[in-house]
Amino acid sequence: MTDLDDIYSNRIMELAAAISQTTPLKDPHATARAHSKLCGSQIEVAIKMNDGRITDYAQEVKACLLGQVSASIVGREIVGTSTDEFRSVAKSMHDMLKENGPPPTGRWADLAILEPVKDYHARHASTLLVFTAIEKAISQIEQGG
Prior knowledge:
The protein is an alpha+beta fold and 145 residues long. A 3-stranded antiparallel sheet has the order 1-2-3. The longest helix has 19 residues, at 124-142. The protein has 5 helices and 3 strands; from the N terminus they run ααβββααα. The protein has a single domain (4-142), classed as Sufe protein. Chain: A (Alpha-Beta Complex), CATH 3.90.1010.
C-alpha cells in the first residue's frame, strides 16, 4: 500500500496549481455539479458541445488537492474531446481507482499520477468529481436539456 504522504508529491502540487478553464462560460449548453459528501469537495462545470465534441468548458473547483489535480488535467485536455473519448477516459479513471485497471494513456496520461489513490477508498469520490460533473452535463445535452 502506498503511503499517503507519497501521493502528495511536487508534481501533484504543480498540477493542482495549474487549474485552467476557470472563467465562466457565456450561454453554456449545460452545467452540472458534483460533490463529495465525505470531504465536502465540489466541482461545478459548464460545457458547450457541437457534433458530439466538447467545444468550450469552464469549471469552478472547490476541492481537495486530489480533486484539484483531476480538474487541472481535465481542464487542460477537454476542449475538442469527443463525448466517446471523454467517457472512455472517465471509465479508465474509475477502473484504475476501483478495479486496479491501467491508467489513462495518450494526452490523458498525466492522470496516472493519481494511481496511488486506489489504495485510499475515501479519496476516490473527490478524485472522480470532475468526471462525474462532466458526465452529468453531457447527459443533459444529449437528453435535450
